[in-house]
Write a structure and sequence with these properties.
single chain, eight-stranded mixed beta sheet, 764 residues, 18% strand, 26 helices, alpha+beta, globular, 6 domains
Length: 764
C-alpha cells in the first residue's frame, strides 16, 4: 500500500512539471494502458502494478484539472463590469482597507457555471456579508496572475490548489443585492463565522488575540507580519495552525475522558466497551475540530489518519503506522490532488513520515520525556532541508522553543479556548472570561518566544541550493536517524554538510548581475557585483501586513545567499518605490542608504543621492547623474538616477520615476547618456520618454516594471513605439516576471523567470 500510494503521488506530480496541459484524451489513453497492464502484464511481473498507480494518479489529476479549467474568464471581459450571482463560500475577512471573501459563482452573465473566485470591496462600502448567503453582484474581475520571482511565493499555484479561477472587486451598483439567506446552506462556515463574531465581541483586542481565532477557526489573515517572524525564527509556526498536534491532543483528551466516564456505568459497559466508546467520541471530536478549521490540509490529513487508527482500534484490528500514513495520503490526494502544490501538504506529511521513521523499530524506553524529546530533535533535524527549500531558513532554537510551547499550547491553551468557545453559546460573560485567561496564558508564552526569536543566533537563513544537494541532505538525515547499532550511522552527517556550506554562484570581477524584480505596479532592482550588492527601490506596501520588501525582495536576496545590502537606494518617496524599505532595514544589515528624501526613511539613517557622486565596486563604476541639490522637491522629477558602467563600457541606467522635466535636465547637463540597458522612466508613462532622451540613451534593452492590468495602463503604447523605432528589445515584468541580465564583455544572458519556469497553470 505504501509504495503503491507513493507511485500514485508520482503520477500526480508528473502533471505538475508540465508546461502545457495535456488534452483530456490522455485520460482515456492512461486508463486503456492501465487495463492492458492489469490484464496482460501484472500477473507475470507484479512490480508493474506500480505503473498502474502512476497512470491512475496522472489520469485522476488530469481529470480534476480539466474540471477546474472548464471555465476561464474570457480575456475580453477582464476589467469590465459583469453581473454574477452565487454564494459566499468563506468567512469574509475584514481588514482596515477592505473586505475579502471567496465566492462560489453559479450564474455569470446569465450563463450557468460552477466556479470559485475571490472578491473584495472597500470598507467604506461596508455591507452585511455572511457565509452561505446568496448574492448578486456587479464585479470587475481578472484572471489569476501573481508575481513571479526566485524564492518568492507562487500565488498562481496556490490559487489553483484552492480552486480559485479569478479575482477582482465589487462595483457600486444598484443591482447588488441579497438574493437568499438560509441557515441550511454552508452550515459549517455559518457556524464558524458566528463563533468568530462571538470571540471578537467578547475577547478584548491584544497582540495575541488573533491567535485565539487562528487556533479555533484557522483564520489567520489579521495576524501581524512580525508575529509570523517570531514563529519562523523559533520553529514554532506549526503550533499556530490547526493540525495533527492539536487535533491529536483534543481527541486523546476526549478518548481518556469518555473511557473513564464510561467505566463508571455498568449498563454502558455491557452495551459497548469503554475503549470503543472512547474511540468513537474521540473521532467525533477530531472531525468537529477539523470542521472548525474549515478542513485545511493539515486538519484533513489528521482527521483521515485518526479515522484509520481509531476505526481499526474500535474494530480490534492491528494498525500499522505506515499503513495509516499512506491511507491518509491516498484519501487526501483523492479529495484534492492539487494539494501537492501547497507548502502545508509537504510539511504535514513529511513531518509525520519522519516521526514514524524515527521512532519505529526502536527499543521502547520507559522515560516519557525521552520519548517526547526524541520526537522533538527528530523533527528539528529532519525539517532542515524542507525548511530551507520552502522558507530559506531553519531555526537553531526550535528544540528549546517547542519543548516549552508544545505542552503549553497543547495541554493548556487549546483545551481552554475550545471550552471557552463552547461556553460562549450559553454564557458570553463566562465564555469570554475563559478566553481571556487563555489569551493571558498565550501572552506569557509569546513573551518567551519573542525573547528567543530575538537572539542573534536564533535563526539561520540559507540560500536555496540545487535539488541534488537537497536530496543528498535528505539521504544523510535518513542515515543519521537509523536505529542505534547500525554501523557508521553518524557518517550521515557528512551528507548534510553540503546543504549548510553550499556556495551560490557569484559574478566575476568586472561583471554585473542585474535583476529587475516583479513587484507588481512598483519598482525594485538588485545589482550584484563580485563582493557587493545594491538594491534600487523596494517595491510597494499593499497593506499594514504585506509589502514587497518582505514578500519579494528579501526572499530573492536570501535565495542567492545575500545577508548584507551594501547600499539601498530609494529613488523617491512614492509608495510603489519606498513601501518595502522598512522590511529591508529590518531583515538585513544595510551599510548605507541613499534617497532624494532622507526624512521619509526616518528613523533609519540615509543620505541624499546627489548628482556627481560616484564610487567603484569590483571594477564596476556607479554614478548618480541626477538630481542636483536644487531639484530635490519636485516629486517624481526628484528621483535618483543611477548609471552603472563596467570596464567593458556596458552600462545600465536606472531612472526611477523621472518625467520630461528631469529628462530635459539630463540632456542639457550630461555629455553621454548612452546605456545598453534602461529601466524605463516612470514605468513607461507618457509623461516621460522625450524623443531626444530616448534617442540619446539609445538602449539595446528596455525594461518596464509594471503590474498586470495596472490602472494606469503602463506602459503607454506611444512610449513603446518610440523604443521600437530604435529596435530595442522590450521586456515587462507583468509578462516576464523577474528579469535577470548578466553584463560582462557583452550582455550574454537574459533570464525571464515567468517564461523559464512556467507551468500549465501560469497565465502568460
Amino acid at each position: 500500500m505504501r509504495i503503491w500510494t507513493l507511485a500514485f503521488l508520482c503520477g500526480i506530480l508528473m502533471l505538475q512539471k508540465m508546461t502545457i496541459l495535456p488534452n483530456w484524451h490522455w485520460i482515456v489513453i492512461s486508463i486503456f494502458i492501465v487495463l492492458l497492464n492489469e490484464i496482460f502484464i501484472v500477473k507475470k511481473f507484479t512490480y508493474f502494478r506500480y505503473l498502474t498507480a502512476i497512470l491512475l494518479g496522472f489520469a485522476w489529476v488530469l481529470w480534476y484539472v480539466h474540471q477546474l479549467f472548464s471555465w476561464n474568464l474570457p480575456l475580453e471581459l477582464e476589467g469590465k463590469p459583469v453581473l454574477i450571482s452565487g454564494y459566499i463560500a468563506s468567512i469574509p475577512n475584514i481588514s482596515e482597507n477592505k473586505i475579502s471573501f471567496l465566492f462560489l459563482v453559479e450564474n455569470f452573465e446569465s450563463k450557468k457555471i460552477h466556479t470559485k473566485i475571490k472578491l473584495s470591496l472597500s470598507n467604506k462600502n461596508l455591507i452585511n456579508l455572511r457565509a452561505g448567503d446568496k448574492w448578486q453582484f456587479v464585479v470587475k474581475i481578472k484572471r489569476i496572475h501573481g508575481m513571479m520571482n526566485p524564492g518568492g511565493f507562487d500565488y498562481e499555484s496556490w490559487a489553483l490548489a484552492e480552486g480559485i479561477r479569478a479575482n477582482g472587486y465589487i462595483v457600486e451598483n444598484t443591482q447588488n443585492k441579497l438574493l437568499e439567506s438560509h441557515w441550511c446552506h454552508d452550515v459549517i462556515n455559518r457556524v464558524r463565522q458566528k463563533l468568530k463574531d462571538k470571540i471578537e465581541i467578547n475577547l478584548p483586542k491584544s497582540n495575541t488575540s488573533p491567535w485565539i481565532v487562528a487556533l479555533v477557526l484557522g483564520e489567520r489573515q489579521n495576524i501581524l507580519a512580525e508575529n509570523w517572524e517570531v514563529l519562523r525564527n523559533t520553529g514554532t509556526n506549526h503550533l499556530m495552525a490547526i493540525a495533527g498536534l492539536h487535533i491529536g491532543f483534543i481527541s486523546s483528551f476526549i478518548f481518556l475522558l469518555t473511557s473513564w466516564c464510561w467505566r463508571r456505568s455498568t449498563k454502558l459497559m455491557l452495551f459497548v466497551p469503554a475503549q470503543v466508546a472512547g474511540g468513537f467520541f474521540a473521532l467525533c471530536a477530531a472531525i468537529i475540530y477539523g470542521a472548525l478549521s474549515g478542513f485545511c490540509i493539515p486538519a484533513e490529513r489528521a482527521c483521515i489518519m485518526l479515522s484509520v487508527v481509531l476505526m481499526t482500534f474500535m474494530l480490534r484490528r492491528i494498525s500499522i503506522a505506515w499503513q495509516s500514513w499512506s491511507m491518509a495520503l491516498f484519501f487526501l490526494l483523492l479529495l484534492n490532488p492539487l494539494s501537492v502544490l501547497t507548502e502545508s501538504f509537504w510539511l504535514s506529511f513529511f513531518s509525520v513520515a519522519i516521526i514514524i521513521y524515527g521512532v519505529s523499530g526502536r527499543l521502547n524506553p520507559h522515560n516519557l520525556y525521552w520519548k517526547i524529546g526524541r520526537i522533538q530533535w527528530i523533527v528539528a533535524l529532519s525539517l532542515i532541508p524542507i525548511g530551507i527549500w520552502l522558507f530559506q531558513q531553519f531555526s537553531l532554537i526550535s528544540f528549546v522553543a517547542n519543548s516549552i510551547a508544545i505542552p503549553w499550547v497543547g495541554f493548556l491553551i487549546v483545551p481552554m479556548i475550545l471550552f471557552g468557545c463552547f461556553i460562549l453559546f450559553f454564557s458570553a460573560k463566562i465564555g469570554g472570561s475563559v478566553l481571556l485567561v487563555a489569551d493571558n496564558l498565550l501572552a506569557i508564552l509569546w513573551k518567551i518566544l519573542t525573547y528567543l526569536s530575538h537572539l542573534s543566533w536564533a535563526s539561520w537563513y540559507v540560500m536555496i541550493p540545487n535539488n541534488f544537494t537537497l536530496v543528498i541532505a535528505c539521504i544523510g538525515i535518513t542515515i543519521v536517524l537509523l536505529p542505534v547499532g547500525f554501523p557508521l550511522r553518524w557518517f550521515g552527517v557528512l551528507w548534510i554538510l553540503p546543504l549548510i556550506f553550499y556556495q551560490y554562484d557569484a559574478p566575476q570581477l568586472g561583471e554585473v548581475w542585474f535583476t529587475l524584480l516583479d513587484v507588481g505596479q512598483g519598482l525594485s532592482a538588485v545589482v550584484h557585483t563580485k563582493n557587493h550588492v545594491l538594491v534600487f527601490d523596494a517595491g510597494p506596501k499593499l497593506s499594514p501586513n504585506y509589502d514587497m520588501g518582505e514578500s519579494v525582495v528579501a526572499p530573492y536576496l536570501r535565495s542567492i545567499g545575500i545577508r548584507t545590502i551594501d547600499m539601498l537606494v530609494i529613488s523617491h518617496p512614492d509608495n510603489d518605490h519606498i513601501g518595502g524599505a522598512k522590511s529591508l532595514f529590518h531583515f538585513f544589515k544595510i551599510r548605507r542608504s541613499k534617497t532624494s528624501t532622507p526624512d521619509k526613511l526616518l528613523p533609519f539613517p540615509s543620505e541624499h543621492c546627489l548628482r556627481g557622486e560616484s564610487w567603484e565596486w569590483d571594477n564596476v563604476n556607479f554614478q548618480f547623474i541626477y538630481p542636483p541639490m536644487e531639484n530635490l522637491d519636485l516629486d517624481n522629477d526628484s528621483s535618483c538616477v543611477l548609471l552603472i558602467t563596467n570596464k567593458a563600457h556596458k552600462s545600465i541606467l536606472l531612472t526611477g520615476d523621472i518625467e520630461k522635466f528631469a529628462e530635459k535636465y539630463l540632456l542639457e547637463n550630461n555629455s553621454k547618456l548612452t546605456a545598453d540597458l534602461l529601466v524605463a522612466p516612470h514605468h513607461g508613462s507618457k509623461t516621460s520618454a522625450l524623443n531626444e532622451f530616448v534617442e540619446a540613451v539609445n538602449p539595446r534593452y528596455v525594461l518596464f516594471p509594471v503590474g498586470y492590468r495596472n490602472r494606469y495602463h503602463f506602459p503607454n503604447i506611444e512610449v513603446i513605439e518610440k523604443y521600437q523605432k530604435l529596435n530595442a528589445n522590450l521586456f515587462a515584468t507583468d509578462k516576464s516576471g523577474a528579469i535577470e541580465f548578466k553584463v560582462a564583455e557583452n550582455i550574454s544572458h537574459v533570464y525571464q523567470y515567468r517564461l523559464e519556469n512556467s507551468k500549465y497553470w501560469n497565465f502568460i
